[in-house]
């Protein structure tokens, strides 16, 4: 038995060499002889052969896939360069026409910026291998700003910020979450991406109000800021509830629903008080037999929102508490 085990050990040591046809004739014969007699070692040899084949196949297929991906990238890159070349045509033509007409380079610059916008959406994703969406978004925004800038310059100037800040705010609300999700932040900030997004959007909102109201005067600016403050306060409370309150999602949904209904019902009255110093409580004008005046119509709707919102949030919070206790 011991002798057999010894031989098994020797053969198993030799198996990889035997598989690669790298052992001496004598060892080869020893292994072959042993494999015919010993099912255990035969099994080991079969496993070795299978694994080796699998590894080889895996490496081969990885290689094939990598080559294929490289080929596709090369093809996409070439397509990108071709499109970039095509986009240069209108730029060159308008340059020549502008020079010939002697009417300045305004149209040429606008066309150049427009072609850059097209390039941002077509060429950039084709020639870049990673972070395509972010590059696409950032280049498009840059090109759009250039268009604004040149169009504004052609029309006498002075309106660039008025057009670009609100546009950037709108684009940022949609695209900033994508961008921040795909970039790597320092460790201190890496778990604060949602908070950064909220701060960013709030700042842009105020910047937009500032830019839009700037021309209309201080009174407009004050009104805009107050309305934005009251509405954003609600948005921030919902955000903080969802992001930082350590309760289950049912309770969070309940609290958010409740906050939403409260803000819908009272924000108008609060804004009126802050702006016009007029005390009013719209909901106190409730009268379900009168839907014809604005104030009672609003009050009736508010009461319905209050009841529905209250019921839904109570249900959600109730379910949440039951689930929490079951744990
Ligand atoms: Zn054996």
List keywords for this structure.
0% strand, 4 domains, binds zinc ion, 327 residues, single chain, mainly alpha
Explained architecture:
The protein is 83% helix and 0% strand. The radius of gyration is 35 Å and the shape is flat. It has four domains: 1-51; 73-157, no CATH class; 158-213; 216-327, no CATH class. The mean pLDDT is 89. It has 327 residues and is mainly α. The protein is built from ten helices and no strands. α1 (2-19) packs across α2 (25-37), α7 packs antiparallel against α8 (218-244) and α9 (249-276) packs antiparallel against α10. The structure holds zinc ion.
What is the radius of gyration? 35 Å
* Poorly predicted segments: none
Structural class by secondary-structure content: mainly alpha
Helix content: over 70%
Count every helix, treating DSSP H or I runs of 4 or more residues as helices.
10
Q: Characterize the biggest β-sheet.
A: none
N- to C-terminal distance: 58 Å
Q: What is the 3D form? A: flat
SSE order, as H and E?
HHHHHHHHHH
Indicate how many domains the architecture comprises.
Answer: 4
In total, how many beta strands?
0
Strand-residue proportion: under 5%
| Ligand types | zinc ion
- Mean pLDDT score: 89
